[in-house]
From TrEMBL:
One Pfam family from the record: HAD_2
Protein known as: HAD hydrolase, family IA
An example molecular function term from Gene Ontology annotations: phosphoglycolate phosphatase activity
A GO cellular component entry from the record: cytosol
Entry's Gene Ontology BP terms: DNA repair
Lineage top rank: taxon: Bacteria
Length: 222
């Protein structure tokens, strides 16, 4: 008998939450305030990392400005992201997976303050058994946040699936041999995600929903 899937861990931005555009806009705004060049492609490429790592990658020449740039980014994001919502179909998918008896978790590059804000915004605290933010552990692709989620839920790595839209998500899971599914509607292209040997790559939330049910059912079969 194959091991049953008991836990599905989701990235947040670009996987569950339609926030990539606002993240890029807020990073651009912050960069402009401090006269730092930043392309949209560069800003988009780092989504998924923890904020300190974002600053190190995007603004390596001005470490003395990192704190102020990140504060400016965070303020702009909060003040301008009121329209950010789950992708269509996410609420139904999460509720259905929960009804199947699965544990759900979040592993995100957001800060704890930022994650708590969007959990409140979406009234989704009760859907997730455990959440981990980059500010309270190590940033992706280090697998520490996944290890902590496994420890908190007392579930073995082979009984979990990580779902994410970036190479950081899938590399993090690959680093501890956790099964993983990519989504192509977020940040990184399918050919980038494919490098990390995912079980599958979903083109939209409806596709992801069906893929998750398929892999749960397959792994539960004798």
């Amino acid at each position: 008998m194959k091991k049953p899937v008991e836990l599905i861990i989701f990235d947040w931005d670009g996987t569950l939450f339609d926030s990539v555009g606002q993240i890029v806009a807020s990073l651009q705004f912050a960069a402009q305030q401090f006269n730092q060049p930043l392309t949209d492609a560069a800003a988009k490429s780092i989504i998924g990392l923890g904020l300190p790592e974002v600053a190190q990658v995007l603004f390596p020449a001005v470490p003395e400005l990192h704190h102020d740039i990140l504060q400016c980014y965070a303020t702009h994001y909060v003040e301008n992201s009121k329209g950010d919502v789950w992708f269509e179909g996410v609420a139904v998918m999460l509720q259905d997976l929960k009804a199947q008896g699965l544990k759900l978790a979040v592993a995100t590059g957001k800060s704890r303050k930022g994650l708590d804000r969007v959990l409140n915004q979406t009234s989704s605290q009760e859907l997730f058994d455990v959440t981990r933010a980059a500010s309270e552990t190590k940033s992706k692709p280090d697998p520490l946040m996944l290890t902590e989620i496994l420890q908190a839920t007392e579930i073995h790595v082979e009984n979990a699936i990580m779902v994410g839209d970036t190479s950081y998500d899938l590399e993090m899971a690959q680093n501890i041999a956790m099964p993983r599914i990519g989504v192509s509607y977020g940040v990184h292209a399918p050919e980038v995600l494919a490098r990390y040997n995912p079980l599958a790559i979903a083109d939209d939330v409806a596709d992801l929903h069906q893929l998750l049910l398929k892999h749960v059912n397959i792994k539960q079969a004798v």
